[in-house]
Design goal:
Blueprint (H helix, E strand, L loop, with lengths): L5 H7 L16 H11 L7 H4 L3 H35 L20 H12 L2
Length: 122
């Protein structure tokens, strides 16, 4: 492919002078492409050798997609199990945050302070 073709300019383009802004910078097409290749378990170093052979490329993409979907669903199931376990066993309030009059427990100090105002009238 000639150096002046738009696909090659997009894939191999670099920033000429300026630095990227702080925080997470906007990614170039090439950065997104490499991220996708990594998620599909296609080697970033030699994807150009695989791409010209259409059957091999399609096979690599489909196999990578199956692996990525398996990883994603396994991770989602693990997160869901952890979340459900937390719902079944909620954290117990700290005993130090307990009303001295009615012995009600509170999770936050501000809750105890707000509650103590109800006992001032009594």
């Amino acid at each position: 492919m000639h150096d002046q073709r738009i696909p090659k300019i997009l894939l191999y383009g670099e920033l000429a002078e300026e630095k990227r802004p702080s925080g997470r910078p906007k990614l170039r097409y090439n950065d997104n492409f490499k991220e996708t290749l990594k998620s599909l378990s296609i080697p970033v170093e030699n994807w150009e050798d695989i791409a010209p052979d259409r059957l091999q490329w399609r096979g690599a993409v489909h196999q990578g997609e199956r692996l990525a979907e398996t990883r994603r669903s396994t991770l989602a199931a693990t997160k869901r199990e952890a979340r459900k376990a937390r719902e079944e066993n909620p954290a117990q309030p700290q005993p130090s945050l307990q009303c001295s009059i009615c012995y009600r427990c509170f999770r936050a100090r501000i809750g105890l302070i707000s509650h103590s105002r109800t006992h001032k009238d009594n």
